[in-house]
Amino acid sequence: MRGKKLKEIEDGRIHCVLFFFEGLRYTELEFQAIKEIQQYSNVIPIIAKGDNLDHEELADMKHGIMKEARH
């Protein structure tokens, strides 16, 4: 890498994974997948169609995801 400019260095790493949750439910299998992926990259959970949820449903979903992600 000596002598190469930063723009010329090819980076094949995955820096971030967007993980989509569909609806108000999520499964243990989804969290197992997230835990495996987190060993290699950052994971950003996204609630699909979250704009269709009311404030309370969205807050409950976020709280549930955060709680499961910590275990």
What order do the helices and strands come in, and which of them pair?
Layout: E1 16-22, H1 28-38, E2 42-48, H2 55-70
Parallel strand pairs: 1-2
What would your notes on this structure say?
- The structure is a single chain.
- By secondary structure, the protein is of the alpha+beta class.
- It is built from two helices and two strands; from the N terminus they run βαβα.
- It has helices at 28-38, 55-70; strands at 16-22, 42-48.
- A two-stranded parallel sheet has the order 1-2.
- Strand 1 (16-22), helix 1 and strand 2 form a beta-alpha-beta unit.
- The radius of gyration is 17 Å and the shape is elongated.
- It starts with 15 loop residues before the first strand and ends with a helix.
Short descriptors:
71 residues; alpha+beta; 2 strands; two-stranded parallel ribbon; elongated; 20% strand; 2 helices
Question: What does this entry show, briefly?
Answer:
The chain has 71 residues and is an alpha+beta fold. It contains two helices and two strands, in the order E-H-E-H. It has a two-stranded parallel ribbon with strand order 1-2.
- Number of E strands: 2
Oligomeric state of the chains present here: single chain
Order of helices and strands: EHEH
Rg calculated over all Cα atoms:
17 Å
Shape: elongated
Distance between the termini: 40 Å
Unreliable stretches (pLDDT < 50, length at least 5) are none
Biggest sheet: strands, sense, closure? 2 strands, parallel
